Each structure stands twice: as structure tokens, then as C-alpha cells.
Amino acid sequence: MRSPSKRSLLLAVSVVAGLLLLAAATRPGVASRPVKTFHLYVNDGEWEFADGEKSYIVGYVAYNSKFEEAPPGAKLPAPTIPSPEIRVKVGDEVHVFLHHNGHSHAAKDSAFANVTHTIHFHGMDLVQAYDGVPGVPAEGLPAKLLGGVPVGSVYEYKFVPEYEGTYLYHCHIDSSTHILLGMYGAFVVEGKKPNTIYGHHYDREYTLFFSEMDSAHNEAIRTRGDYEMLKWKTDYFLLNGRIFTDDLTNPLSTIADPRSVIRAKEGETVLLRLVDASFSHVTAFHPHAYHMKVIGIDGRKLESPYWKDTIPIASGERYDVLVPIIQKRKSIAHDHNLGGMVSTGKYPRGPLTIFAVE
Amino acid sequence: MRSPSKRSLLLAVSVVAGLLLLAAATRPGVASRPVKTFHLYVNDGEWEFADGEKSYIVGYVAYNSKFEEAPPGAKLPAPTIPSPEIRVKVGDEVHVFLHHNGHSHAAKDSAFANVTHTIHFHGMDLVQAYDGVPGVPAEGLPAKLLGGVPVGSVYEYKFVPEYEGTYLYHCHIDSSTHILLGMYGAFVVEGKKPNTIYGHHYDREYTLFFSEMDSAHNEAIRTRGDYEMLKWKTDYFLLNGRIFTDDLTNPLSTIADPRSVIRAKEGETVLLRLVDASFSHVTAFHPHAYHMKVIGIDGRKLESPYWKDTIPIASGERYDVLVPIIQKRKSIAHDHNLGGMVSTGKYPRGPLTIFAVE
Amino acid sequence: MRSPSKRSLLLAVSVVAGLLLLAAATRPGVASRPVKTFHLYVNDGEWEFADGEKSYIVGYVAYNSKFEEAPPGAKLPAPTIPSPEIRVKVGDEVHVFLHHNGHSHAAKDSAFANVTHTIHFHGMDLVQAYDGVPGVPAEGLPAKLLGGVPVGSVYEYKFVPEYEGTYLYHCHIDSSTHILLGMYGAFVVEGKKPNTIYGHHYDREYTLFFSEMDSAHNEAIRTRGDYEMLKWKTDYFLLNGRIFTDDLTNPLSTIADPRSVIRAKEGETVLLRLVDASFSHVTAFHPHAYHMKVIGIDGRKLESPYWKDTIPIASGERYDVLVPIIQKRKSIAHDHNLGGMVSTGKYPRGPLTIFAVE
Fold first, then answer.
1. pTM (predicted TM-score)
2. A127 interfacial to chain C (CB closer than 8 Å)
3. Cβ under 8 Å to C: B residues 325-344
4. According to the model, what pLDDT value does residue B327 have?
């Protein structure tokens, strides 16, 4: 899978440079910190929505649930929206390997076919070698680092998360296009104490990832690699990659997705991690039947929490909220910006899910 | 007005089921709580804007200012934008009857002609029987509850508000369309102490309700009952249902509406209840000449108030703000998202009103 | 430059009336407060973007860096986006003269050619005579005040800023159009103690002004003076008037602008003053590598600061944030609302700049 090309050798040099930076960043005497390793592979494919339509997408995939390195020649899973959630703990030494396996579903003559990729760990506040941003003049770093990870290469990102909370990771090459193709996922940093965040207890947790898609954009990228971005017109507003539909038995609906249906028991406290990677739509997340206590934003504890029943979330923001399950009831939770609830022009095809309390 | 049909009998069964839920929800020994009853009737009609154009709208109307039940055959008022504000007190036993009287102004062969309606009390955190949401599988509740209230029927919503603050109510059938047709109003829960909210004193109060309308959508719903929602293009950005115009004597302008012109005296404190039910426009409410102290959001007291002169409000949000009237002056207050100030393509046709301090 | 016409005589009367108001507003016994005088001149011209395209703009210009009055017949600088930043201190007696010098670059038969202008000091909370708003019925003030400052006239605004913080000034005649043409700038009120804001220390500061432009709008105003505002389509999303481009040596790019490239040294604390005057785009400002401590909003100290890495900003809002420079690194900072990063349809042409830490 790895092709030790000239390019990757150069990248290897940058990895060494990065290691030095990492060494400088870690404190002496903490050699025993846990190491967590994740292998992510770029993969493209088709994503089917609950209305039966399909769209070209690109994502990061994991070979297995442990994010282990894929054996040579192993078949990779198809991409999903969002990409798999990564979980680490405060103080872990995190190693993320990005393997660029190419875009087997893109047209061969598409300008997208051989583009590079990176990972930007949004909110992690990393040094340049691990920040995933191309094109920034890099003092002391190889010029090739600037171009992103080419097809057939691998790059290692390393860092030690200092703050518990909710983050996201996404590609930062041609970002609007690569993100909107599907190259994003949640990145969660847990605190040291189980079921505790920012000092607050919770019984269960769910990550709700909001995003947008313009399927015409994705198809244009697949076939030509180019799109007039001012023509962007979102046709899918997504919660964890799905839309709701009136058909409650639809296996592709949000409510057939265990990541999105919020199950809890009376008396419990549910942590919701709200994440957004939109084009420009501001999602107004509104659960019925419950108020939410906002306890942290963008990976930082809120000193003065406040209560909301409708939270506007812009692209790149994260809200950590606690929901006390005050009573057995079933309710819905959805985007209250009504324009977000009409994917493909039809209501209620949008980010809507169910709170199912036993 | 009520037609005791098979449908309403089934609905009556669900009301009984709901009553049991209510009984379970109320604490024993508080039989003496005040009962507040409101009768709301679905009605449709025409709404005229300050530019002389008219649009089909649908709303909830009250027979009289006490929200009493209309006598058989009584003529109902025409709908307004927004629907009448409902006011109760913390601890009241609130009963709201929704009477669906049909859509006499819709084309008979419009798919909209016989649709059902409900009331969702946004932010009240109710059990399913009173939450106004169709289509959610309802354990122990009659299936018919799921479809909404049909033409010719009545449904009773019951609850006891626990938190003072500002809320809204709106239809939750085919929500994007029904809300945007005009089916929304403010719902205010007063505290026990007069002129006091969240422990803060105020001398006067105004409710400013922001919303959007696409008159082409409304006309399509009236005639066909169908609209390609991705074509939505707001042509009216509204404050309490109206736009401002350059003609200060226009009787249809915001500033001819006593609900919207903020009159106060020097030294007073004015409470503004900001409510929003937009399509996707984020209103940036900006009063000139005054800063606002944000004391509560979404029906909950803010422990750490803050000051703003421009408040972004997304659909479904409410802000309770205090304005100390520091000096005799006249000023304007408007949406600072400039795109909201150009209804019908012309400035200053948008949510703009006047602070008139004596 | 000043033409003592009938109009300006009438305006002079209003200035007298305004002076009386100012006298009433200032406290007795503080005659020794510093007087700060600024002369701003309306000027129009062409603005070139980093993609080589040019657009008609209108702005306020200063004759020199001291904002002194221009000698008769002096050539004025071309307008810039944004207009020059004005700086005063809490307690200063501020005098701002608006000279309307006409629109020499507009077509003579454009309806825009002879429009009036004003200055609204957004967030300053001024009495009507100095608030820059036309058309509001003015008790005790000459009717002519209502029309704005005509070509060839001058008007004096006077006030004493009470609160340190970040504000903006802009025209309030036909506001959506005049603002979007470029008539806006930052207005900063410093506290009495150097390098201190709201009691917090900072080492350096930058003002980042976000705005939008639709070059078709600007051209229509220049040639005809009229634009169907519902057709508004932003093609330039700007940071201090510029877009970023892939060409790092482009002299017109954001990163060739010393106002926008954030230079700092390890261990310092940087104050960023975020200001927004958008059409309706919500900018989601996201610096890589750093979290921001939000210490003040809309010109008021925040009692309970909080941390963010992505701040949504709507038109008219200001955020004062502190960035502790924790480590030597170079990173980018940009709008994370991806739609804002595709000016002219191409990524990364948007509000993107660089944090360059030595």
C-alpha cells in the first residue's frame, strides 16, 4: 500500500522534522504516556440517501474498528458520512497515519483523480507539521510538506491532546471541496474520569454531526474535478450523513441509525456532542421535550453554563450539552432553520432524529 | 363548529389518554392551580404588506381577546402575522383547544385544502400527547393522534408551564410549509411577580417576532398545495408580520403597529422579547442608541447576563433583553443582516421599527 | 470644498440644535476633556482584488493619517476597503466632520450620483442628531436633518465615548447599498490604560474586518444607481477588503496586508478585534493553532469570558478576543463557513490570513 517513492521519502524527512517538534513539545519525564495509533485511509465511493438517490463521496476509512493498519492488498471499507469517529484521552500520545490510496471511483481524466489530501485536527491547536494545511510557507520544514499527501503515500500526525472535549478532523486541501465531498469526522478527547466531562457526570453520549451536500458538486468533482463554487446549492442537509424521511421503516433514514437515535432511561443524563461542518447553513438544533445545558464549546469548559432549547451551530463549531432525561417520553430533535429540513425540496428530509426514552 | 365525526371520536380517545398523562404529570395536592383556557381556530385568508401586495396566509385566530370559544356559526377574525400572543403564568394549568375550521381561501383541488394541523409549544418540553408532532411512533397512544387534527375536529392541549420566559407556538404538520404560511405566534409565560422576569424588574415590554415569507410559496400552496422547497426565495422579511417603508404614514408599516413601536419614558427599563421563526435567515437585531442586557434565552434565566447591541437570532430562538432607557431620544431598531432589509428587493423594507422615548 | 448653500445653512441650524443636545449630554465641570477631531471625506473609485478584477467602491477617506482637514483643492486619497480605522479614548470629546465631496466616478445620469450620506457610529448609542439615520421624525430638529448630508456639504458629529471596545461606523442612507459599496470602517475606543482592554493586558492588536461584496451590485449602482436587491449574489468575501489567493507573493492578497497578517512573539498575548458588516453571510472565524478567549462583545466587557476556536459573527457584531501565543508556530486563520472561502467561485479566495509567530 505504501509506495516508497521519491515523494514519500521527502515526506519522511518532514516526519522526522515533525518528530523533533513533537519531542520539543512533550514534557520530559512523561515517557510512559499511553500511545494511541490510528490508521486512516482515503477512499471514495457512493453514498446512498434515504430517498434512494446516490452521490459520489470521499472519506477517511478505517480498516477495522481498532483503526489498525490494513494488511497489504486488503480491501478497504467503503467511505461513510461522516468518517469514523476517533476517540482518545487527554494526555495520550496520538499517532494518526494518513494513507492516501487514491480515488478509484473518480473519472481517470478528472482533475480530482490525483489530488493530495491531509488531515487537519480542528481545534487541536497543533504545530505546523501536524496541522494539515498546505501552502503556508514553512520555515525549517521541507517544501514538499506544503503540498499535502500524494496518492500512494502515507503521513504520520502526532500530538498530545491537552483538553477534553469535542473536535473534528477534516482534509485541508482545497478545503471547501474536499470537506464537502465528505472528508470529515468527529474527534473526541475524553477526560481521565469515565462518564465525566468538564467535571459533569453523564450516563450516555451521542455525537450528532451536521453537514451539507450538493450532489451536483460531488458529481462534477468526480467527473471533471472542477465546480463553479458560487453555484453551490445544497440539496442534502445531513445528520450523521443521513436525512429523515416520512417512512419510519426506511433503513437509510436517520432514525435507523443507532448513532443518531438518542436512547436513554428516565433519570439519566445524556451528553450530546454537536458538531458542524456546513457550507454556510447555520443549523439550529432543537430537541423537543428537553432543554439542554451547554457546558462546553469548541473543546473548552464553559465557566458559566447556560440552558437552551435551540442552538445555532455554524461550520466548525462544537457544543457539548447535557440533557437531563426528566421523564419517559418520546420526542423528536431537528434543525429548526426550516430551510435545513427540506433536502431535495421536500419536508421533512433533513437533520431530524428521535429521542426515545424508556 | 365541532363535527362529532368518527375522526373526532378517535381523537377524543387520545384526549382521554392524554388526560391520564397529564394527571400523572401534575403533583398531588395542587388542585387549586389556576386554569387558563384558550380556543384557537385555524383560519386562512389574505395578508397585505406595506407595499400594497397581498399574500395568502394561514394562521391561528382567536374569536375574541379572551380566547373564548366561538358560538356556533360565529364569524372568525381573519388571520394575522403572527398569530395572537398567548400569555399564561408559571404554575397555571393551561388548556389550549385547537379547532380546525378548514381552509376556505385555498383552492378546492389544492392538496393543502384538507391537511391536518397541530400546535407545537416550542420550548415547553411537553409529553408526546401535547407536543403537536405527527408521525412519531406513539406507544400507548391511539394511532390517529399521529396524523394531526383533521378539518372539522378539535384537540385539547394541556400543560403546566414551569419556567417563566418567552416561547413560541406553531404548527408541526409539514412544518416548513405550515410555519412559513404564517402558523406561529408568541407564547409568554409570566412569573408570579408583576413586571419582573428572572428576578429583574421592567416597566414595559414588547414582543418582537421575526419571520420570513416567500409569497410565491404561499400562492403555490393555496392553489396546488405543493412547492419545490429548494426554490424558496424570501421576498418578505417581517417584524410582527410587517415591513417598514419610507412612507412614515403608511398604515401597514411596522411603525403603524403599536406592537412594534417601542414607546417608553426616560429612566424606564424596557423588556424586549425577541422571537424568531425564519426559514434560514439569521436576524441580527440592532437597536440604535441603546445596548441590551441579555438576561434570558430560550425560556431560561441566564446566570451571567451580558450586553449586546446586535443580537443574531436563528429560527426557534428567543432572547429576553432589558433596555435601560438612559435618555430621551428617538432611534431606530432593525435587522443588521443587510439582506433582511431588502424585502421585495428594496431598502428599507424589512424588520425596522422605532424606539420612541418621551 | 464647502458650499454654503441653502441646504448647508439648514444643516448648520441642525448642528446648533445638536450642540445644545451635546451640551445637555456632557456633565458640568469636565471642560478639560481631550478633543479629538476627525475629517472624513466621501470618495469613490475603483478597488482591485487579488484576482485582478476591479470593482466600483465608495468609502470614507482621510486626507492624511491625522484625519486633518484637507486644504482647499487638495487631492483626496482613493477609497479603501474598509475605510480608515478611527481611534479615540474613553472620555474624549470626539468631533467627526463628514465632508460630502460627491461621486466623481459614478455615471452622471446614475441615480446614485447625487445621493446624500451620513455616518452612523454603530454601538455608540448616540442621540438622534449624531446617529446618522435619516427619515426618523425628529421632534425639535430641522426637517432637513432627515435627508442626510448632500453633495458639497459638511456635517459635524459629536460625542463622548463612555465604553472602551470595538465599534464600527458606516453610512445609514439607503444602508444596504451604501454599506455594501464600501462605506464602513472600524471605530475603536481605547481605555485609559495602554495595552489594556476590559482590565486584560495585551501586547499587540489587530482589527479584522469581514465584509461582502457583489461586484454586479456595485457596477449597477455606479451606472444606473439601482439594483434589484433580491438578486444579490456575493462574489467577494473580504477580510480587511481583500481575499487570499494561492499565490503567496500576490501584493493584493490578504497576506500582503500588514493590517491582516498577525505577527507576534512567543509568550505574547494578541488582541483581535473582529468586526463584521456582511450582507447575510455569517463569518465563522477560525484561527488554526490557537484558541481565543472572548473577553468583550459589542463594546462591552464580558463578565464571564469563554474560549472558542471558531466564532460565528453576524453583520454588525464585534468580538474582542485574546490569543495567548503559546508557541512559535505559523498557522492560518480563516472563515470556516466554507461558502465564504470561495469568492468568485474558487477556493481559497476568501477571508484567510496568517498567524506568523516568531
1. 0.93
2. yes
3. 326-327, 329-332, 336-342, 344
4. 81
